[in-house]
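Notebook p. 47: complex prediction with thymidine-5'-phosphate.
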Amino acid sequence: MIDFGLMPIANGFLRPSDLGAEVRYPLSVVACPACAMVQLVDVVPPEILFPAEYAFHSSTSDGMARHFQRLATDVIARHSGSVPFVVELGSNDGILLQHVAKAGIRHLGVEPAANVAAEARAKGVNTVSRFFGVEVARDIREQYGPASAMIAANVLCHLPDIHDVIDGVDVLLSPDGVFITEDPYLGDILEKTSFDQIYDEHIFYFSLTSMEALFAPHGFCVVDVEAQPVHGGSMRYVMARTGARAPGARVLELRHRESTMQLKAAATYADFRARVETTCAALRDLLVRLKDEGRRVVGYGATSKSTTTLVHCGITADLVEYISDTTPGKQGRLSPGAHIPIVPPSVFAAAYPDDAILFAWNHAAEVMDKEGEFLRRGGRFLTYVPDVRFISAPT
Ligand code: TMP
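Predicted complex, structure tokens below:
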């Protein structure tokens, strides 16, 4: 489908002293003509992707906090079952389960990263620090009984051993329980040409078509779907054991919509690839022009996605002065591949640049809201999703 060649680790923000040690890995995605699954060809070993100090914090934006609160409310109201026991895979710092805990509902978070698991426990969230699969599912079932609801938010697309995870859901879920999973949606990626969603940590790019093909052999079917605005456009899938519940109208509707998207056709991906190259060329040309005009251009949000954009589009450090980011662990480091310095937002606010490329375009509304002063002083945010353009008002 699309071959990005050799790419640095997307979240591999470098210490200046580690510059010479940067390693690149092949990054390419393929689409299955039979089931529409889009996935990486090569998987970077997890010990390289997720070194001990790696910590993705779900609680990085107000938008995500609100999203998880809404999901928790929905799970509590509709899916906790007659003997409530809510299990979340990849429960991170407890951003979702804290609400379930506060409601006094039995729950368990499964979070392999020890540091964020500890943060969750500090919020009163019962958490076990292990990688979820059949073995862990058996242990949990033995200790707590079956789960009435299981949740995996932006988790499944990261897991190479996905069949073992689904088998684990099969072991742990009660006969009438639901498994709720949400991930970046292939339909959004294609529609918005958001090629920067493609990086080493995202192994799968799901659609309803591929989800149904993946889960059916395990005895599950999709009974509801709901588009979500998070992570640049996600889809929530509610699964139940086959025959336990009938698929709702939204499933039938999305099935129909996906059939018109031609997700199994090679031409769909050839067209996507062409649009990616057009966007990249337009972005690079614009940055060169802005530099020629003497404008100061910076980046906003050192996202993992930005690595794909910077490296694939050939944007070099001379075109982007720095990238502002709120994450303390990224500040003082260099962006993977392009080696652009990452600085705290105080640097951005101390001497506003002329223009800022919004690498965190998935948080556009929140950023626009908080950077009113930059905009009032004539600053411009530049995006490349769905195409290259300046944005000066909340989107
Ligand atoms: P995400 O898209 O994976 O959630 O990553 C967002 C990145 O952008 C993360 O490194 C934090 C950063 N960020 C800012 O620097 N400022 C902001 O206002 C927001 C919302 C995010």
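Notes: Residues 266-292 form the longest helix (27 residues). DSSP finds 14 helices and 17 strands in the chain.
Next step: compare against the earlier run before touching the bench.
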